[in-house]
Write a structure and sequence with these properties.
With about 270 residues, the chain is mainly alpha-helical. It contains twelve helices and four strands, in the order αααββαααβααβαααα. Helix 6 packs antiparallel against helix 9.
């Protein structure tokens, strides 16, 4: 019995040595050996994101009758909550949109401009050889929110407020921080701790959330609710714009209300 067992184990060992080496550190029984997961296939729509909660909300929009533009806005908003270092209303937005009905490809550039009051000459006068990443000289008007509205006005079928509702709910009630996002958060903690506002918003008890910790962002929820209720232009011409310009002035920045009012995405 013992000899039989050893023979069986030896046979298994020989079989394993004859298999091609698994490039990713594990065996794949079918398909490309270097592929980490099976190809996802669907008949009536698909959502691909870097976070499961964002993918889920996009799929729900499609299942409820929304189209790709609707789903993309809902996904983008959710990513701004659960993966704040990558997406969000403080950044820009770019869209490649294929319209199957007209068989035309559209491109949307929703990247904001630098302030009117900042020029290359002014940077050179300060003796700068490059734009500092952590100073007001690098700030541009966030184009994301206007991009949402412009995209939906042309191709969307759902109101912006409805599409932001899931992200607002998650920002209020919280979400468990995943491993990779927690590691990026920790890497940014020292920079966030330099400012009272970012410390209060992003660092619970002065520390970045660890993997599995439930994180809530009520301030972001309030801001997104204003956008949902009053429309995207409140970000550029209302209370949000005024607060952003005030903060810029306090930090020695260059933003004015005109910079925000003139921000518009371009097809």
């Amino acid at each position: 019995m013992q000899r039989s067992c050893w023979g069986w184990l030896l046979g298994i060992g020989l079989m394993l040595t004859q298999l091609p080496a698994a490039a990713a550190g594990y065996d794949r029984p079918a398909g490309a050996p270097r592929q980490s997961r099976s190809v996802v296939m669907a008949r009536q729509g698909m959502v691909a994101t870097s976070h499961p909660q964002a993918a889920q909300v996009g799929l729900q929009v499609l299942q409820n009758g929304g189209n790709a533009a609707d789903a993309a806005v809902a996904v983008n908003a959710m990513l701004g909550v659960v993966e704040p270092m990558s997406c969000g209303i403080g950044g820009d937005l770019f869209v490649l949109y294929w319209d199957a009905a007209s068989r035309q490809l559209y491109g949307l550039n929703a990247s904001g401009c630098s302030p009117y009051g900042l020029s290359r000459d002014k940077l050179l006068e300060q003796g700068l050889k490059q734009i500092p990443l952590d100073k007001p000289e690098s700030w541009t008007v966030p184009g994301c929110v206007d991009g949402w509205e412009v995209l939906l006005s042309r191709f969307g079928t759902r109101p912006l407020g409805d599409l932001l509702a899931p992200a607002i709910d998650v920002a209020e009630t919280g979400f468990p921080v995943s491993e990779i996002i927690a590691s990026h958060w920790e890497a940014a903690a020292a920079g966030l701790a330099k400012h009272p506002g970012s410390t209060a918003t992003w660092l619970s008890n002065g520390k970045a959330p660890v993997a599995g910790q439930v994180f809530r962002n009520p301030q972001l929820a309030r801001t997104m609710r204003l956008i949902a209720e009053q429309g995207a232009r409140t970000f550029y011409e209302g209370e949000i714009a005024r607060q952003l310009v005030q903060f810029s002035e306090e930090q020695g920045g260059y933003f004015t209300l005109q910079d925000f009012a003139d921000c518009h995405a371009d097809w």
